[in-house]
């Protein structure tokens, strides 16, 4: 397998690449992809890093696992490939954006358009076995992605971190809230949204307000 992370991240993450845990993680991932059906496709595992370069990061959205259904995951959290039916959480995300900002509900659930504007769509675990949610958790991915969050916090200024749900909110400990904006909400999953913990959170409007105040271009959601 040929793992590639965009050169803009290489200098900052080289210490992680040299750690024993990362080598063990890569061995695990190679073995899984060689013997099982896994997602996303191997050339899209690091898509979050390859579509949103380090210097461009303005917003970080943290997910948990890639989608584990056939043809869904494309290496960006909450995102699916063009033409794929929108999963329930993504439907609720788009509904909230439509409500907050008046942006029409999109046909495509591919969030590459966000990544190209500086939104890092980072799953805590970057791979998963087909139809087995959580199957690649606690193998080292979380250590790598936690280090990524801390790196962004330490080396950048005025980044918005969107932490949705209990799992993502635990990542706040890696973020310097004195120089970054952390916005939280319930998870956009139906279970949380139907209990009133997602809708009307104004996270997208508040993100753009903060970016504008920091002299940055807002995101066209």
Automatic annotation (TrEMBL):
Gene3D superfamilies: Uracil-DNA glycosylase-like domain. It is found in: Cytoplasm. It catalyses: Hydrolyzes single-stranded DNA or mismatched double-stranded DNA and polynucleotides, releasing free uracil. GO terms for molecular function: uracil DNA N-glycosylase activity. GO terms for biological process: base-excision repair, AP site formation via deaminated base removal. Residues 50-211 form the Uracil-DNA glycosylase-like domain. One of its GO terms (cellular component) is cytoplasm. Belongs to the uracil-DNA glycosylase (UDG) superfamily. UNG family. This is Uracil-DNA glycosylase. The gene is ung.
């Amino acid at each position: 397998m040929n793992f590639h992370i965009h050169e803009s991240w290489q200098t900052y993450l080289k210490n992680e690449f040299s750690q024993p845990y990362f080598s063990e993680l890569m061995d695990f991932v190679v073995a899984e992809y060689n013997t099982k059906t896994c997602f996303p496709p191997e050339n899209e595992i690091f898509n979050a890093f390859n579509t949103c370069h380090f210097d461009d990061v303005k917003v970080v959205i943290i997910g948990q696992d890639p989608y584990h259904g056939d043809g869904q995951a494309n290496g960006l959290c909450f995102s699916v490939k063009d033409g794929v039916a929108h999963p329930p959480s993504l439907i609720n995300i788009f509904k909230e954006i439509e409500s907050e900002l008046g942006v029409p509900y999109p046909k495509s659930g591919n969030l590459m358009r966000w990544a190209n504007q500086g939104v890092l769509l980072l799953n805590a675990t970057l791979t998963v076995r087909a139809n087995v949610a959580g199957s690649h958790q606690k193998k080292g991915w979380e250590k790598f992605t936690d280090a990524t969050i801390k790196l962004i916090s330490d080396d950048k200024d005025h980044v918005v971190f969107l932490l949705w749900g209990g799992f993502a909110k635990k990542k706040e400990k890696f973020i310097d809230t004195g120089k970054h904006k952390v916005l939280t909400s319930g998870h956009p999953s139906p279970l949380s949204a139907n209990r009133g913990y997602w809708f009307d959170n104004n996270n997208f409007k508040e993100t753009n307000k903060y970016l504008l105040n920091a002299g940055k271009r807002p995101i066209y959601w």
